[in-house]
Design brief:
about 240 residues; alpha+beta; Elongation Factor Tu (Ef-tu), domain 3; Threonyl-tRNA Synthetase, Chain A, domain 2; 2 domains; four-stranded antiparallel beta sheet; 3 helices; about 15% helix
Length: about 240
């Protein structure tokens, strides 16, 4: 059975009761439902813990999609953790502070793609920082100017929401896709759109804050030339 992905409906849900349904040969723990985001789209998998009924914890270093079935998520324990038994009842609990930083940065990167309306060739999300790579024919990008424009969008207090369209609807609207290297998550017959009210709309499977005001102050920390037409722009929470 596919893992029930609770983070898709509520990115602010920090924990949930769950049942262990399988453990693979490498120790990856599959639950029937989870709040853990699995690595994908430039966003790393969540860390946290699986708390047993008695209170003992299994520390989780990351979450990944099962390579044999991408509809299921594996929770990867840190070394030296005692494995649970299939059928055990646990509470899946996020490292919430880390997740929230990633949500703030991820949403800020969507705003950066508005400040710089060029094709995105790559990107990564960290714990309070992140980057996007742009296909830009000429350089001359000013960090202070970009920072000012980015924070002006943050200050608009724009609501952020999600909706779904079919694969066919996405194919009919190719302009929604900004990323050249990371394709929208497909396979289920529908694609999730993230809307920043009055500012941006694009396919994304990641986790985001509910309003741009929650991002807080951000700064463009570096602009790197990575090729003739490629500029890497780094941002960080301030």
């Amino acid at each position: 059975m596919p893992t029930e992905l609770l983070f898709r409906d509520d990115a602010y849900l920090a924990e949930t009761p769950a049942t262990v349904v399988s453990i693979n040969e490498r120790g990856g723990i599959e639950l029937d439902r989870t709040v853990f985001y699995a690595t994908g789209g430039g966003q790393p998998g969540d860390a946290g813990a699986l708390v047993r009924n008695g209170g003992s914890e299994i520390a989780i270093g990351t979450a990944i999609y099962n390579p044999e079935d991408k509809s299921r998520i594996l929770h990867v324990p840190l070394e030296g953790q005692a494995a649970p038994a299939i059928g055990d009842k646990v509470t899946a609990k996020l490292d919430w502070e880390r997740r929230l930083k990633r949500m703030r940065i991820h949403t800020a990167l969507h705003l950066l793609s508005v400040v710089l309306p060029y094709p995105v060739t790559g990107g990564a999300i960290g714990d309070g920082d992140g980057r996007l790579d742009f296909d830009i024919p000429e350089g001359g990008l000013d960090k202070a100017e970009l920072t000012e424009k980015l924070n002006a969008l943050v200050a608009r207090n724009a609501a952020i929401s999600e909706s779904w369209i079919t694969d066919e609807e996405l194919d009919a609207n190719p302009g929604l896709v900004k990323t050249m290297s990371v394709k929208p998550p497909r396979g289920s017959g529908r694609v999730r759109l993230v809307s920043i009210e009055g500012i941006d709309l694009q396919p994304c499977g990641g986790t985001h804050v509910r309003n741009t005001s929650e991002i807080g102050a951000v700064a463009v920390t570096d602009v790197e030339k990575k090729g003739k037409q490629n500029r890497r722009v780094r941002i960080a929470l301030v």
